[in-house]
Structure formats: C-alpha cells, structure tokens
Amino acid sequence: MTAGIDSDKYYTPPAIASRALERAQLASTPTICADTACGSGSLLAAAEEVLEARHCLGIDSDPLVIRQLRREKPDWRLYVGDLLKRHRPPPTDFPGTCYGVDLLVLNPPFSLGSRKYVTVKYSGHSVKCSVAMAHILRSLELFRPNQGAIAVVPESLLYSNTDQDARELLDQDFSLTELLQLSIYTFKGARVNSSFVQFRTPSGRPLSSIEVMPQPEDSIPTTVVRGGLQMHAFERAPSGVRVIHSTTLRSIADAGITAATERTCAVAKGRISGWMLLLPRVGSPKEEAFRAFYSKDAIQLSDCVIGMKFPSKVAAFSAQRRIRAHWKSLLCLYRGTGARYITIDRLVDWLYGIGIHDRNAMKEMSELTLI
Ligand SMILES: C[S@@+](CC[C@H](N)C(=O)[O-])C[C@H]1O[C@@H](n2cnc3c(N)ncnc32)[C@H](O)[C@@H]1O
C-alpha cells in the first residue's frame, strides 16, 4: 500500500473479509485454507467461519504476529517466514485430509519500497512484477491450491504494465473475477484503490501435486538446545563432561554415548542430559546417524550440533519416528549460499508443523501475550 515502510501491516477488517468470502464461487467446501501473509489472521478466521474450512495454515514474516496468533489459534498451523524466500511449502498433513491446500486467502504486502519491480519464478518462468503479484505467484506456485485463491489486490495489479507478463501467465491457469471493490479507507493508515479478486481454477483440474506427508499423532514436547562449544578453542580434560561434535553423531547412533570420547571442563552453552535426539547445525543430516539415546550425565554440545531433549524414552522415539517420516522436508531446511545450515527458528517452526513443540517457544508465546 502507499505508506509501506512497515511490511504492510494493513490488516483486513474482519467484516470486510467475511463479506468478500461470502461472494466466493467455489466448487466445494475447502478443507484446508492457507494465507501466506496472514498477519492477525482475519482472512483465515473468515475462511473458517464463512467457508467452513476445517484447517488453517498461516505464514507471516513477522514473528510477533505469529506468536500472538499461535496463542489465539492453537489449532492452526502457523509459520514465521519470508514467503518470497521459501522453496517448498510447509507440511500440509492435517489429520483426516489426504491432499494439499484447497484455497489460498491473502492480502499480500503491496509496497515496493525503492524498487521498481521484483523478480520471481512461476511455472518455470522468471517474471518481473510488483510485490503483491510476486507474493501471489509464489503462493500459487508453492501450494498449488486445488481451488485457486482469493486475494486483496491493488488496482494497479489488474492494469499496470509492471504486472502485464504475470497476468498473462496467470491467465493460462486461472480465470479472474472481482468479488468486492474496497473503499480507499478500508485499510487503517493506508490510502489505496484495491479489491478482493478470485483466481479460479478450471473445473476438473487435478488435485494438488504437493507431497503428501503422514499424519502426525499427538503433540510431543521437547526442549531445543543449541550447542555452544567452539571446537577449535576448547581445552580437553579427562575428568570433564563428554563433548559431542557433528562428526561424532554417526558413532553415537551406532554405539551410544560412550562413543563420544573427548571431554572438557570448559563451560559453554548447550549442556544437555536425559533422552535426546541430535542434529548437525551445518552440513546435511544423515538419517542413519539420527537415533534417540540417553545420557544420565550432562554432555556438552559443540556449536555445530543442535539437541532436542525429551521428557521420556517414549517421547524421544516417537519424535525420532516422526522426524524420519518427514526427512526429505527436514533436508530442505538446511540452506545457505556457502555451507548449508539450519537455524534454530527454522527448526522450531518446522517441528511445530509436525507436532513436536519446543517448550521455550511455547513459553515465549505465553510471556508475550501477558505483556
Ligand atoms: C497487508 S498485511 C495482511 C495481513 C492479513 N492477511 C490480513 O488480511 O489481515 C500483510 C502481511 O504480510 C506480512 N509480510 C510482509 N512481507 C512478507 C513476506 N515476504 N513473507 C511473509 N509475510 C510477509 C506482514 O508482516 C503483514 O502481516
């Protein structure tokens, strides 16, 4: 929108969201709805209420709004992330469903800032377009929703030269109808000519080609621990605690904790004991080196290892099974221009999506809403 220096936090008023969705023409009730710039969640809430969607999935680049929303909507799948940087959708394996997202509902960011256009990939093409269009194209490409999308778009997206190429590409897959013209006063703090439009798929389009993930069982609590010992700088001490580095993970999986022979008295972040699973932070994790194990004594994780601590053996082995069932999507979390690595935030979000809940993240959420 015009005043977009703040990531376009111009949330859709709930009454407007409902009014627009009431006008949608859908082939059937959408089971799963997703919003890739979900903000305060008003479009997903309207999808639940008006369209009777059973499951909601939201992404937003702002961790604070996602934390708040997770607290308000514990049944929704919510992820922090920059949609334009995602290469894969998050898991859409909701209980009782067997395919991907049915409908996207979104009010994307509009502001280009100082840029004239952005470039995104859609359907094998590299397209120059506005930010709003880029967000729509990437969302359609990532989720391949069976029934297309309903989106708030600026008037310019429908007519400008900037979005001409993108419109032509979208024309090949969708028909576009305007559902509701919005007043320039609809969004508090922004003045923009915009409307709700629907991108409809032709009837008979095959279901989404998104990889189907197994259904998660019950939620598993964990505590994610980032290792902090720098391997090149620590002092070895025979009477100290065992040190775990990423190169030790395979032998520990085969022979248990006794395979870690190096010890230190150095105190660093990342001490852990009890039932646990370990992943390398850098490189690429190996499925055969990923096995739950127990250590009565605290062990020290190097800064190249991330630990997940579990309250029981059952929880640790259930998490092992569940993570292994989603191994391919775990591998996609390891990214980087040089060496591939995973961040704690990325891992915690992903674990949340498969029903493994980090206690610290959950605590942070409740503290946040108490303020
Ligand atoms: C106009 S608001 C819409 C929020 C919500 N869908 C609604 O209609 O109320 C745009 C949202 O997009 C988020 N956002 C901006 N850039 C993003 C990006 N690259 N990836 C994901 N979310 C983004 C902002 O944090 C903001 O919450």
Automatic annotation (TrEMBL):
It comes from the Bacteria. InterPro entries: DNA_methylase_A-5 (IPR003356), SAM-dependent_MTases_sf (IPR029063). Residues 6-184 form the DNA methylase adenine-specific domain. GO terms for molecular function: DNA binding; N-methyltransferase activity. SUPFAM superfamilies: S-adenosyl-L-methionine-dependent methyltransferases (SSF53335). Belongs to the N(4)/N(6)-methyltransferase family. This is DNA methylase adenine-specific domain-containing protein. It comes from Roseateles asaccharophilus.
